[in-house]
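Risk register update: the risk of archive-format incompatibility is retired. Evidence:
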Amino acid sequence: MRKILVSLLALSAVGTAQSADLDYDYLRGADFDPPPVAVIDWSGFYIGGHGGWTSGSLTKRADAQAALLNYANSTPSAAGYSLYNSTIFASRGSNDSFGAYAGFNAQFDDVVLGLEADYTHNSRKSLWIGTATNLPPQYAVTATNRTSFENYGTIRARAGYAIGSFLPYVTGGLAIGEANFSQNLYRPPYPAAPFAQVTTSKMVVGVAAGAGIDYAITPNVMLRAEYQYLNFPEFNGRQVQLNTFRGGAAVKF
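Archived output:
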């Protein structure tokens, strides 16, 4: 019995010594602080570039018809013409577009308000062709009316709601664009060098609206996906409506 008691006391002493040697840090786990999550501050100036796809409508045939009428009324024996055909090319279509943008944001808690301006170039054009018939052969004529709307910009307000690295937003404001017109008269065979030509350009103002989302890769580098709608009221017998889906990248300062 005495031997059993001595053995138990010895084992208890060894266990107590081992317990005293235990590293309680090991039991708690290593002292490790995870890296801090980057806080995105959307306030500040930014500048970037964009590219995408633009579709829209751009057409009006009245000017070419008027050119034929003026020709008929001013040319001996040419009065009384009738339109043989009238074909509209690219009255509605799509093409690539690209440009640049810059703006400023101010953040109030999770609400982000800003002002942005952008420039876009695309190759939006329309062509109308009409031929006057019932004329003596020497007076046969074809008229064309070309309209292009290749350069435009917008100035817009933006309002968004910050969700971590994401900033969904809506936007709206003014659009300003340059429209170019060209009217030509051709004698057969068409196409050939026109014998009469009138070209002009005009600055027009419309409205812009859209929505998108910015994503901050880092606190100073942002990616963007955006839809933009432009509507220019009728000018010179024409009306332009453009829909653009585009992506972009910007640097914030």
